[in-house]
Design goal:
The complex is a heterodimer of chains A (about 120) and B (about 350). By secondary structure, chain A is mostly helical. Chain A has helices at about 5-20, 40-45, 60-75, 75-115. Chain A has one domain (about 30-115). Chain B is of the alpha/beta class. Chain B has 2 domains: about 5-150 and about 330-345, Rossmann fold (3-Layer(aba) Sandwich); about 155-325, 3-Layer(aba) Sandwich (Rossmann fold). In chain B, helix 8 packs across helix 11. The chains are: A mainly alpha (about 120), B alpha/beta (about 350).
Chain lengths: ~120, ~350
Amino acid sequence: MTDPEHALERARAAAATMRAEGAYGEDQRQGEAPATTLENLFEWAMIDPDLREVRSTRRLGAPVTLLKLGLVRLLNQYHAELLSQQTRFNVHILGHVRRLETRIDELERVVREQREQ
Amino acid sequence: MRIHQLLSGAGPHDAITSEAVSFRERFRSWGWEGRDYAVHVAPGLNGHIRMIKRFKPKADDVLLIHHSAAAPRLRELLELPNRKLLLYHNVTPAHWFWEHAPNVAVQCAVGREQLPALVKAVGVAAADSAFNASELEALGATRTAVIPLLVDYGRLGPPRPGDPPGPPTILFVGRLSPHKHQDEVIRAFASYRRARAPDARLMLVGDPISSRYLEHLGNLAETLAPGAVSIESGLSNAELGERYRAAHVFLCLSAHEGFCIPVLEAFSQGVPVIARPAGAIPETTGDAALFVDDPDLSVVAELLHLAVTDAELRTELRRRGQARLALYAPDRVAQALRQAVEAAASRG
């Protein structure tokens, strides 16, 4: 019997042996969620709602889901206008942030070079 | 005494809602009056929880505030003269959700921002684990209490005597969400299946955080272990109990847990637990789970193999699991609850 306190140790040893025999690939844990980057923000700036989320969560809710999707379709022009205005703002503000970042990078480079001299 | 419970959201499959309903039953048995309210109330609650717009407390009523996400109109609530008890269930850090569920990320980001104001405004700050209580203490709470989640394990039905028949079956129960790392469960399972048990099955049970994330997990499962992974949501208690009873091992690789009810449910059904020691998991499971934090998923696979095949290890883990459950017996939890409410009520 393996007691619970020694199970991990035994599993590690077995994994090393099995790996040497070619049983396992290089599958590693993914770890923490990556930090949000400016590239992520540009991707998210284009508002793109997932219509699969427009649904009823009740059991036997299919007719309600159809009704909701019908309403979305009816309001299509309004939503298009809303999305275009929000996306315009998002894209412009991100462009502004990117320009500021570029200026900060440039200023930091100048300060670094001055310190080195 | 009159005590009202306030929740940000209430739903039929939500652990905090179930706890609030159980708390109310206890309050009634102690002769305490009051009502329960939520900002968002999902259909199917049969009047257990009322909409918060109907909330009109008298000055000497006690308020029990459950905090697990953003609470709209919080300032109005905190400005009420009533004595208040906070019960903090933890708010998952928002960075886990920005990509797949921005609406949830916003709820979490705001929920965390609100926490300092809550801590400052309440007489007693309680949490359902010492891990969660430590977050309150870091924000300046001087008087904290731990009230573990009140869970009715009997709703799952009686455990199966002995091991389930059929091929090795691995189970994880929890919201399908990036911080629960069902992706790593699938990867570890695929390695285990490839190296040790070609007929093994994996069951993932939980409501998806978004359709996009569900699709992502489904694609991953089909790529790495075609036909061997089932993903289910919206199960009844009886169906959930059946899934536990069909499992040989419960595998939890979650990166953030404020309590983790499913590991206790696994104990109650006699299912050995392997878990990553993250958040409150070590505190909840004690010595009754096998912990693994190795980045190499082949170690997880080998631990699965050991937990499935070593009969004596399984028996010992079951014994420890049963002993652990005694700590979370409903009467013990109810006693901690009563003490915390009375402490809050006694503060002027």
